[in-house]
Amino acid sequence: MKKQNIVFIAKSLDGFIAGKNGELDWLHAIPNPENIDMGFNRLMNEIDAVVMGRITFETVCSFGIAWPYRKHVFVLSSTLKCIPEALNKKVSLLNGTPFEILRNIHKKGYLNLYIDGGSTIQQFLKEDLIDEMRITTIPILLGGGFPLFGDLASPLEFEHISSELYLDEVVQNHYRRKRSSNSR
Fold it and tell me: Which domains does the chain have, with CATH numbers?
């Protein structure tokens, strides 16, 4: 059975996923009165679980909204020791290398994963463990902040699959990792 690790994230024109102080208000710079999900529900139908870092988990918890994920969430952290009681059956804590984490999650029967959070995405890319990226670009320059991508040991090639335009301003590009037949 095929395994997929998919990134689904928004960035600014200059490549940042959060502002200099972690601010995310710019994500809502373009009015969305109809609450178009920009492919989020489609993604949720394709995946078995979500893998995110501690900072992303804590950020989502701070939004003061209902838990937005209908799939199980694995939070990667070596410092977080417990999760809020209301999320006990929806969230699990894991730590280890990306390979160990994937092995553990796959043993539980979760094969198609949504990988979320800046440092988590960067760690998985460093190990060449990302199969697809759906990157939504918000037309704003932040001038600094937390970058989506970090250093890599060598280039990773992706092919462009499609582009979608939302709200007449927001572009979502879908990429798939180019792999030789003997890799992974």
Answer: 4-25+48-177 (3.40.430.10)
